[in-house]
């Protein structure tokens, strides 16, 4: 399938959000509280490009909970149509967008033009968010340690709460997406 066909296979963001079982409230909290900066020049430039976005995700993903509401706000300001595909049901596409050529990390945002040509990709995290995650993971005990699973679960809870509540993280995601959109010719 080409990217336009993948896009057409995707579901509308509202359908995705309504079907969420894990992070729906957190995603909506970010969406409700994040305010786009007044960057009307960028929004007009992106609007002219008539982009569409394919989002590869799963609703259990904390990174998706953080990043998707920021993308949706940008999409509204720029008239970008967004379609969501579940990663685990679309591995053929996901495997074309592996992180570090090995990991099925999500979310992945694939920006395409009206003809389905890939213009840019983004994900799974802004660099500053990756740094935050790396520092949290560095504090974990070795996987062989008896308390690893408990510490890992604590770390995930801490990260998800941070993603939901720390508006600076939202700004970092926005800035990273903004940078990607500015690079599209």
TrEMBL record:
Family matches, as InterPro entries: Thioredoxin-like_sf
Superkingdom to which the source organism belongs: Bacteria
Entries under Gene3D superfamilies matching the protein: Glutaredoxin
Record's protein name: Thioredoxin family protein
Species this chain originates from: Virgibacillus dokdonensis
């Amino acid at each position: 399938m080409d990217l336009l066909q993948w896009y057409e296979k995707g579901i509308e963001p509202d359908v995705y959000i309504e079907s969420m079982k894990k992070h729906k409230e957190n995603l909506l909290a970010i969406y409700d509280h994040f305010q786009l900066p007044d960057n009307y020049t960028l929004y007009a430039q992106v609007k002219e490009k008539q982009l569409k976005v394919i989002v590869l995700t799963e609703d259990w993903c904390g990174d998706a909970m953080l990043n998707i509401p920021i993308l949706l706000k940008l999409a509204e300001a720029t008239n970008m149509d967004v379609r969501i595909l579940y990663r685990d049901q679309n591995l053929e596409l996901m495997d074309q967008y592996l992180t570090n050529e090995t990991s099925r990390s999500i979310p992945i945002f694939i920006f395409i033009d009206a003809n389905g040509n890939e213009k840019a990709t983004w994900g799974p995290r802004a660099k500053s968010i990756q740094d935050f995650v790396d520092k949290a993971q560095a504090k974990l005990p070795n996987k062989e340690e008896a308390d690893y699973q408990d510490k890992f679960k604590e770390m995930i809870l801490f990260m998800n709460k941070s993603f939901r509540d720390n508006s600076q993280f939202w700004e970092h995601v926005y800035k990273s997406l903004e940078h990607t959109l500015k690079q599209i010719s």
